[in-house]
Amino acid sequence: MVFFGLLIAVGRMVLGIVVLGQFLMVLITGNDNDNLRNLGQGLAKWIYQGILFLTFNTDAKPFPFDEWPQVDSSEGYSSRKAQTGGSEIVDTDVASADDSSIPSFVVSEDTDGSDPDSNDKAS
Questions:
Q1: How far is it, in rounded angstroms, from Cα 37 to Cα 43?
Q2: DSSP characters over 19-59
Q3: Which of 4, 17, 32, 97 lies in disulfide reach of 77, CB 3.0 to 4.6 Å?
Q4: Residue 14 φ then ψ, to 5°
Q5: How many alpha carbons lie under 13 Å from residue 97 in its C-beta half-sphere?
Q6: Among 40-54, 64-78, 79-93, which stretch is predicted with the lowest mean pLDDT?
Q7: Beta-carbon neighbour count of residue 100 at 10 Å?
Q8: Do the beta carbons of residue 50 and residue 4 sit within 8 Å?
Q9: CA-to-CA dists, residue 70 to 13, 113, 116, 119, angstroms
Q10: How high is the pLDDT of residue 18?
Q11: Mean pLDDT in the chain?
């Protein structure tokens, strides 16, 4: 149990490095790295299995006493929008737009514009 506790602590540090690496990859290239994504998913599942074992929720010991968790295929991240061939730009008529649903933040005409709290402080 102590052995798995230490391994999970190391695994959490490695997972933090993977997160930082993915952040830098997306920041620099605009896309994530497949290998880092798969490593992060497998490592997160392994840490979860280890925590379940340490908290006596399962008797199944995680890796290295069992196989490494299976990684589910997932769609990668891209900061670029997908290009569609059938898109078109539509012009709108600004004059016919209905502005009645837009709230107005204008002070009503019946107020004098003074601060309502200033009356309380003066008395």
A1: 10
A2: HHHHHHHHHHHSB--HHHHHHHHHHHHHHHHHHHHHTTS--
A3: 32
A4: -65, -40
A5: 8
A6: 79-93
A7: 4
A8: yes
A9: 21, 66, 64, 69
A10: 94
A11: 77
Which structure tokens are listed for 1? Answer: 């149990």
Residue 112: pLDDT above 60?
no
Q: How far apart are CA 10 and CA 31, in angstroms?
A: 27
Which pair of tokens denotes residue 81?
């929008």
58 Cα distance to chain centroid: 29
Place of tokens 């059938």: 86
Average pLDDT of span 80-92: 58
Residue partners of 30: CB distance under 8 A and separation at least 6: 78, 79, 80
From residue 60, alpha-carbon distances to 35, 44, 117 in Å are: 27, 17, 66
> Is the model more confident about 75 or about 84?
75
